[in-house]
Amino acid sequence: KVQKMEAVHGSSLDDSELLQQLVLQELKSRGIDVKLETPKPPKKSLVPFSTPSNTPHSNAVIPGRIFGRRLGDLSKLLVSLEDNQDTDVLVPKLVVSACKYIEDNVQIEGIYRMSGSAARQKAMRKEIDTFDKDFREMSPPPSVLDVASLLKQFLRELPLPIVPRIFHQVLAASFSSPPSSKLDNLLLCLLLLPSDHLACLSFLLHHLATVANSSNHNKMTATNLAIVLTPNLLPIQDAQTVAATNMVAAKLDKKTVDLNNQKLKLHTNIMEFLIVNNSSVGYVNPMIQERYQAFLSLGGTSHSEDNLDEDVNGPSKRKSKKKHVRRRSGSLSRVLSVMGKNIQKAMG
Q1: CA 253 → CA 250, 260, 278, 335, distances in Å?
Q2: Contact 89, 81 (CB under 8 A)
C-alpha cells in the first residue's frame, strides 16, 4: 500500500537551489519557456522608491527600519496557513500584524480600495518604523482602511517585489497553458521564488481569500482585490525602476503605455487566479517532492554536479567508478547558470 506524502511547503525545504533545479527541469519537459528576464542593474545613485520626503530636490527616501527594506532583512514570525495548521511559514511581522488586524475588521466596506487618512498613516508609519509596534497595540485603535493602505505602501516600497520581475515571463507562459494544466504549471513556477517571497506570497493570498469571503459586506471580491493589489504584489516595474523613471513617465510613447496596460491586465488576471486557488500555492507537488527526497537520499545537494537530465523520473542507477562527480548536461547547466546569475542580480 503506497503511503501518501504529506503536503510540504516549498519555503520549508532546506535546499532551495535543488528545488529550483527540479522545477526548471519539469517545466522544460512540459514545454514551458524557462528563460528568465535579466533585470537591468539600477544606477548606483538611486535608492529604493519610497514615499516622497520633505527634503528639497529628493525623489526618494532612504529606507527606514521596516519600510523600504528587503524581505530577507526583516524580523519575521512563524505563522500557520489557515487551511493547513501543520504548515508554518516565516512572514515579516508587519505583514502578519496588518493582515490579522484587517481580518479582525474584515466586514468594513472598501478594504484596500479606499485610501483612508494620509496624515494618520504618516504618524502610524513613523511609530512602526521607530518602535516596530503591532497594530493591535496602538491607541486609539487605527482605522482598518489606514492599516490596509500602510500594508500596500510596504509592499509597493519593497526593493524587490513579492513576485520579482525576473519571473514574469515564465509566469505568463505558464498562465497561457491549456485550462487542464494551467494551475499545475503556475504553481510549479511559483516554487522558483526565493523562500522569503514564496512564504509571504502564500500568507498574503490566504489573507486576501479571507477578505474576499466577506465580500458581501466589504464589497471586495477576488476580482476587486486583484485590481488594487496587483501593482503592489506583481508590478510591471520594480521599485528601483519606478524611482529611475518617475520623472519621465509623461514622456512614455503610446506603444509603451499600451504594452504596460496589457502586462497589467495579464498580471491582474494571474493574481485573481492565485487568490481563488490560494490553498495550493507554495506546496510542492508529490512528483517533485519524491525526486527531491530521492536525490537527497543519495547524498546529493544542489551544489553537486549530478546529471539531473539522465532520468526525469528519478535518480540514475549508474554509479561513477571515480570520485569525481558527474557533470550536468550542457542544456540544463546553461539554464541553471543563467537562472543563478539572474536571481543573484535581482536579489542584489
Answers
A1: 9, 11, 37, 34
A2: yes
141-158 mean pLDDT: 97
Identify the three-state secondary structure at position 199. Answer: helix
Say if residues 57 and 64 touch (Cβ distance below 8 Å). no
Helix axes 330-347, 16-29, angle to 10 degrees: 130
Single-letter amino acid, residue 242: V
CA distance 24 to 339: 9
Q: What percent of the chain has pLDDT over 70?
A: 71
**Closest among 188, 171, 168, 329 to 260, alpha carbons compared:** 168
Which runs of consecutive H residues, i.e. helices, occur in 134-194?
Answer: 144-156, 168-175, 179-190
302-343 pLDDT, tens digit per residue, is 554 344 433 333 343 333 433 333 334 444 445 445 555 555
- CB-based contact 318:122 (threshold 8 Å): no
pTM over 0.90: no
For residue 13, give every residue at least 6 positions away whose Cβ sits within 8 Å of its Cβ, in sequence order, or none. Answer: 19, 195, 284, 292
> Who's near 186: CB < 8 A, 6+ residues apart?
171, 174, 175, 177, 270, 273, 274
Backbone phi, then psi, for 142, in 5-degree steps?
-70, 160
Q: What is the pLDDT of residues 230-267, one digit of tens each?
A: 999 999 875 544 444 444 445 567 777 777 889 999 99
Q: Are 239 and 156 in contact (CB under 8 A)?
A: yes
Q: In terms of pLDDT, which residue wins out, 3 or 203?
A: 203
Give the C-alpha separation, 26 to 34, whole Å.
10
